[in-house]
Amino acid sequence: MTYTTESAFSFASNRLNSDFQLADAVPATISLVKRLSTDDQLALLWYAYTEMGRSITPAAPGAARLQLAEGLLNSLKQMSHAQQLEAMRDLVERKNTPISRSYGILSNNTKLAFWYELSELMVQGFVVPMPTGYQPSRDVNETLATIKQLDFGQQITVLRKLVADMGVDPLAD
């Protein structure tokens, strides 16, 4: 093979595009998720934690001070299922509510662990479960497939960023 300036540029350009695509995967995936409706975002989190939860588990509860979220989780468990769903929607929509403010002061890792615990409480029936027979939308399925294609570190980064942006930080502003 003959090496020319053009072939070297082509090789470098392809390499840069590949590296850029890897680096760009996290923000692009986050953008996909944020375009989903509130309920689709909640469904996506549910599926992410139930389908990939076994690999997320060590990164979430082990790295976080979940005891800081215990009061918030206990408050949610005391609510009716309708109130629980509304509180979760409020978190996604960043509505200024007592639950959203309590959530907003948690660290990002604790927020990640909070959603993991919430999914566990849903499975156990303490928190509103996914509706029987629920079928995720095409957008949820496609976004979940995109997340599954990321490497483990990118998956955690996407989930951490998503849950970090939820709720209302009462200390901001």
UniProtKB/TrEMBL annotation:
* Matches recorded under PROSITE patterns: OCP_N
By its UniProt entry, which SUPFAM superfamilies does this protein fall under? Orange carotenoid protein, N-terminal domain
Which GO BP annotation is one of this protein's?
A: light absorption
Q: In what residue span(s) does the OCP N-terminal domain sit? A: 23-173
GO CC terms, sorted: phycobilisome
List, alphabetically, the InterPro entries matched: Orange_carotenoid-bd_N, Orange_carotenoid-bd_N_sf
Write down the Gene3D superfamilies for this protein, in alphabetical order: Orange carotenoid-binding protein, N-terminal domain
List the keywords (alphabetical).
Answer: Antenna complex, Chromophore, Membrane, Phycobilisome, Thylakoid
Alphabetically, the GO molecular function entries are:
chloride ion binding
The entry assigns this protein to a family as follows:
Belongs to the orange carotenoid-binding protein family.
What name does UniProt use for this protein?
Answer: OCP N-terminal domain-containing protein
